[in-house]
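Repro:
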Amino acid sequence: MTHLKTDIAVVGGGLGGVAAALAALRRGRRVVLSEEYPWLGGQLTSQAVPPDEHVWVEQFGVTATYRALREGIRAYYRDAYPLTDEARRDPQLNPGRGRVSRLCHEPRAALAVITKMLAPHLSSGRLTVLQPHVPVAAETVDGIVRSVTLRDKDTRHDTVVEAAFVLDATETGDLLPLTGTAYVTGAEGRDETGEPSAPATAQPENMQSIAWCFVFDHVEGDHTIERPADYDHWRSLAPAFWGDAMLSFTAPSPRTLEPETRTFHVNPPYDTVGGKEAHGDDPGDLDLWVFRRIAARETFLPGSLDSDIVLANWPQLDYLGGNVIDTPDRDVHLRAAKAQSRAFVYWLQTEAPRPDGGTGWPGLRLRGDVVGTGDGFAQAPYIRESRRIRAMRTVVEQDVAVAVRGHGRPARFEDSVGVGMYRIDLHPSTGGDNYIDVECAPFEIPLGALVPVRTRNLLPAAKNIGTTHITNGAYRLHPVEWNVGESAGELAAFCLDRSLHPGDVLAKPELVRRFQAALTEAGVEIHWPEIIGY
């Protein structure tokens, strides 16, 4: 067993964890950062999902460091790739020309930029990164987390990290039960929150589906994978509200809940399918190839790519069979989620209806090299919902939903520590719910949502802040997770400099204002201009 002592332990190296570590490090603090998977960056890298962002992202509404990450990705392509002259001159370069956002890119590009951002702190010795490590125990005394035990997944060697502050940036809030931090899972009841979209009473096991993403292209030859042993099971799966089998191009429309058949055009000429990125009333996913395309042939010089490269994160991959939090069947459900995605790959290669009347695309080729795996599937499942702290302030639907508020102007909080924007977007759930998709105002992140009701030196730094099952649907995406992590790292450093706990800051308006000033100085936007949500 190894023992380490540091100022701040950040457990979980997803987007929130990386942002938290960077924030603490720039304040001169020593940090131990741990991560379960080979790549830092979470949903952007190991989960392989390009960023879901709001329509104003190129002008405002993200932190300065998140903007540096985005511009770093573009610079990476300009420095390393044979771009066309048009693409190289484009200040808003979108390598994949996908519709989900203005920046669709390969996960390895984000990993390269994250590595560069952390590099000077590794050289200085103020940052220690432990991979692949998971938390297995913690010591908490009178509401103070004294230490966290991290286990190397390969060697089983344990490292005990003592820290003045502990930040939980894991994908599913894994530190919360280990530290005795009060938390909630699944759907809160309307009887507790008053949210119009909540069920009447709490459903702790009803959570958003996970999805195991994969990356592929299309080239000459037969790249059909071996027929999965459980293929017939997945082929027969047809939830009542789906409108067809899961292995089809049909899925409910998030906005109308009516079954809608998507198209799948292999390597289409640019601009022949879809258009600009989706927003407003257009979810942008009517053509599955274009929606999350992460490398478009037209971006690069002729001959550079034999095919577009596409990230599959589609409704048909949403795993409804059970959740992966607080259950002994976690590994069973993880394997099943990946099996569902594998079955969909085989269906695409062998049975999917083609526009020319044929069936299947045997030329579809899984690209494990793009995601750092041997099988073409992401290193980690895409997690949409985490355990969430019982917070001093919980954001509810009434705070941010346009219909409830009666207008789409920004939802403001006096103790704001950041901003975000996304529709309240809940995928079909393990409890059998269809989509919940609600028009949302541009929102702010209240400091109170980062402060646990009980544990005094633990901070949430990812999707585990004080939101509900409903509002998590808006607060869970890439730039918001980064902002949450960055503000948590800043808060830990602010408290250490003044011998305070987060609850002390929250309790005094003057301290809140000082902390907000520190955030603003660091490039964190804490209020929106006058804009309208969608």
